């Protein structure tokens, strides 16, 4: 793929995917992309694979306004990655930037669990909605030699255009984010038979329950605080919008401690709720956004009797 050029209006998002077969192919596309940003005075931020980040730094050098990070180290969770990109864009616009160049590779292989891979794919789609109003070019990088072919195919659905074998073309399969995110929300696997359970749960009781069970499950004190905060926010949401009654479950799942809150409510009307950073003037919706920020994964799925919210934190962090 040649250097990805901005094709969106000056005030809108351009969001191509770059599929490549080697680090050399990555550099053929990304070095001109970064250099064009330097020439035009556009801030550049790239969070890419370890090999790619090292190679790109070697080619571009230490240039003011260019930031290159290892994707495995820089906000390796979809919700915090989205917030960090959104924050960087707003900071650069306030500093006077006219347009901003980003590049990013999701952390597909760091966990390998299907639910985490699916959330990264959802994130790739959600970027189209969250960054739509901003003058941003965001190239998402797909090293096909280390990715499952299905992940590469999903890029056709989550990106308006695609770069392969030195060329660029529109994606005929691109799908509206709200539609795709709703479709990519499969039913949750059943909780294990030995899951701890408490019902009905008020926010105060939920905090005590989660603290006790997470401590016994080996979760670090810092992550217990994160999980308690997220659970409390969700429990408060249930009291306000979910029918007022909730059941809380917890269990250990491999390297993760899991909490699930089940209510009798109708669920979310907006499938992107909690993904868009709230504005200062926004009076509601902050709790769900905050909960997404402090856990490793938050899933919201309809059930036959209401809605289930599942929260994951890694044990030992």
Short key terms for the protein model shown above:
alpha/beta, eight-stranded mixed sheet, Heat Shock Protein 90, five-stranded antiparallel sheet, 317 residues, 39% helix
Structure characterization notes:
This protein is α/β, with parallel strands linked by helices and 317 residues long. The chain has 2 domains: 171 residues, Rossmann fold (3-Layer(aba) Sandwich), CATH 3.40.50.300; 119 residues, 2-Layer Sandwich (Heat Shock Protein 90). It contains 9 helices and 13 strands. Strands 1, 2, 3, 4, 5, 6, 7 and 8 form an 8-stranded mixed β-sheet that branches. It has a 5-stranded antiparallel β-sheet with strand order 9-10-11-13-12, covered by helices on one side. Helix 4 links the parallel strand 5 and strand 6. Helix 3 runs parallel beside helix 4, helix 4 runs antiparallel to helix 6 and helix 8 runs antiparallel to helix 9. It is elongated and about 60 Å long. The chain starts with 12 loop residues before the first strand and ends with a strand. The N terminus is likely disordered.
Ordered list of secondary-structure elements with their pairings:
Elements: E1 13-14, E2 16-20, H1 23-40, E3 44-48, H2 50-60, E4 66-70, H3 78-94, E5 100-104, H4 114-130, E6 136-143, H5 149-158, E7 161-164, E8 167-170, H6 177-183, E9 196-198, H7 203-216, H8 221-241, E10 246-253, E11 256-263, H9 286-294, E12 297-303, E13 306-314
Parallel strand pairs: 1-6, 2-6, 2-7, 3-4, 3-5, 5-6
Antiparallel strand pairs: 7-8, 9-10, 10-11, 11-13, 12-13
Helix pairs in contact: 1-2, 3-4, 4-5, 4-6, 7-8, 8-9
């Amino acid at each position: 793929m040649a250097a990805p050029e901005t094709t969106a209006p000056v005030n809108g998002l351009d969001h191509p995917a770059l599929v490549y077969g080697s680090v050399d192919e990555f550099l053929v596309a990304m070095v001109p992309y970064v250099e064009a940003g330097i020439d035009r005075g556009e801030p550049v931020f790239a969070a890419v694979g370890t090999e790619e980040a090292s190679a790109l730094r070697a080619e571009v050098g230490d240039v003011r306004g260019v930031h290159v990070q290892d994707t495995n180290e820089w906000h390796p969770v979809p919700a915090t990655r989205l917030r960090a990109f959104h924050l960087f864009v707003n900071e650069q616009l306030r500093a006077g930037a006219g347009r901003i160049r980003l590049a990013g590779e999701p952390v597909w292989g760091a966990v390998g669990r299907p639910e985490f891979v699916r959330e990264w794919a959802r994130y790739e789609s959600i970027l189209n909605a969250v960054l739509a109003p901003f003058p941003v070019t965001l190239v998402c990088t797909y090293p096909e030699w280390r990715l499952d072919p299905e992940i590469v195919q999903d890029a056709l659905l989550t990106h308006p255009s695609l770069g392969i074998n030195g060329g660029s073309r529109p994606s005929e399969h691109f799908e509206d984010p709200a539609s795709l995110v709703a479709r990519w929300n499969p039913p949750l696997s059943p909780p294990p038979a030995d899951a701890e359970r408490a019902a009905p749960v008020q926010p105060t009781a939920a905090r005590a329950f989660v603290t006790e069970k997470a401590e016994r499950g080996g979760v670090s004190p810092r992550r217990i605080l994160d999980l308690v905060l997220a659970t409390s926010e969700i429990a408060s949401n249930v009291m306000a919008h979910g029918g007022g009654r909730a059941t809380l479950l917890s269990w250990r799942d491999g390297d993760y401690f899991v909490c699930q809150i089940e209510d009798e409510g109708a669920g979310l009307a907006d499938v992107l709720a909690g993904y868009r950073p709230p504005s200062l003037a926004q009076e509601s919706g902050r709790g769900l956004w905050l909960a997404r920020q402090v856990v490793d994964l938050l899933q919201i799925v309809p059930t036959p009797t209401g809605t289930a919210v599942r929260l994951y934190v890694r044990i030992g962090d």
